[in-house]
Amino acid sequence: MKPELRNWSGTYAFTAREVIAARTVDDVRRAVAGTDGTDGTDGTDGTASTDGGRVRAVGTRHSFHDLADNGATLVSVTGIAPEPVLDETARTVTVGAGTSYGTLAAWLTERGWALGAMGSLPHISIAGATATATHGSGTGNQVLSAAVAALEYVDADGELRHARRGDPDFNGLPVGLGAFGIVVRVTLDVQPGYLVRQDAYLGLSWDRVLSGLEEVMAAAYSVSLFTDWTGDKLQSAWVKRRVARADEAVPGQLFGAPRATGPVRLIDAPEDNLTPLGVAGPWSQRLPHFRFDANPSNGDEIQSEYFVARSDGPAALAAVRRLAPEVAPLLLVSEIRAVAADELWLSGAYGRDTLAIHFTWRNAPGPVDAVLPRVEAALAPFGARPHWGKVSHVTAGQLGRLFPRLADARALFGRLDPRGRFSNDRLERLGVRAPCGLQPQDYQAPRESRTVAGRWRVRAGWRARR
Ligand SMILES: Cc1cc2nc3c(=O)[nH]c(=O)nc-3n(C[C@H](O)[C@H](O)[C@H](O)COP(=O)(O)OP(=O)(O)OC[C@H]3O[C@@H](n4cnc5c(N)ncnc54)[C@H](O)[C@@H]3O)c2cc1C
After folding, report:
1. Which residue's CA is the nearest one to ligand 1's atom 13?
2. Which of 60, 189, 382, 414 is deepest in the core (most CB within 10 A)?
3. CATH code for 85-193?
4. In this predicted model, what pLDDT tens digit does every residue of 258-300 receive, in sequence order?
5. Global pTM value
């Protein structure tokens, strides 16, 4: 029986009939072109089932719905060796796109180099995270995709293509949603390594946040506010400061909130999953909330997130706060972060300094589905853009207004992949890809001779949730 493939949180069951775990870039090329990316020594006959049908990249499956699915063939590049190449003059690193942020961060740290930003967990793949405009926090920090200086991808004919910053339409590619090809290597901007000290401050008042949001969010390199929206005080503010020395003193208060002196939990999960508080360390072990060597977050959860202009932040936060009685019972925690504006067409922070309002929901799909339209209606006056990888009810018509370059992105993806091989139902439902006519049923079932061993060639441990 075919094993069931689920997303990281277990809340979505993939419908794809085949996953090809590529080991090399040529594997990806052959997979897309219609040969399976192996030489037959693995027991297959060296042919695959894409045959001009739908094929799509899947990353580490941390998205919360069908974004990475297509009912046909998926290709994972997480098994391709990272082989990082550091260019100290250009200040870039080029690395296998399926590499996790945690792996790359450790490699860079050893060499005295750094990324400018990371998401809350280092376990996600670089390709998957950048494809959905994943972000951390910081008024000066852009989405992770903004660090993409160049990428190499396999196009719809199985050819290897290169694109770099400055090329026409490049700004349509880093947040690509898997819609134009399978990215195999990524070049990211790097900077000299730095130390970060992380501290939690407890009980920051809502009045202070709403009356001086910009000042609060700009209080350090990265500030995250955690709340369940109830009461007069937030739960905690996680403040990540770049420090010159490990023993540099940090303030005992943040706008009247005292610094925590003991362990602090973020979510219904053990605190030893979290990166350390109160002691400076390398950027790679402080910017993510969760440790690379531990299980992140709660796991049994659903996530949603919305992006508003930071100038609208206080009003947007006040609107969500009014929903606290409905929201809080379903919530594990909410996180409020800042993201700097960028020019990437499908970025949640396109063209505006942004406040990101995130919800980690209990795994209660029915009630969460019921409350989301209420949250979205409250945030609609602020032109709230949904996170591409998280659950929302926002429709194609709304997205067209929320992402001013969506039509340009759709046209670009259509030019790069005219037959819609990399499209899927979700992208078409949301108007990111025009309906292309290719359907999952165009999937060519493998001939018997294509061997059972070749089916679900999922590398060991791939199904493990974490
Ligand atoms: C516990 C948890 C914490 C999170 N924290 C954050 C956070 O701090 N900030 C934030 O913004 N988001 C966060 N997310 C969301 C997460 O970063 C995104 O869902 C991201 O897309 C996950 O990357 P992935 O590799 O799992 O991609 P997948 O979910 O596997 O795929 C996502 C998209 O990327 C595309 N893709 C994947 N690989 C490639 C490739 N090689 N070439 C082309 N396209 C590709 C897929 O086709 C799909 O469209 C979190 C999610 C979880 C579960």
Report:
1. 134
2. 60
3. 3.30.465.10
4. 999 988 887 766 777 899 999 999 999 999 999 998 876 667 8
5. 0.93
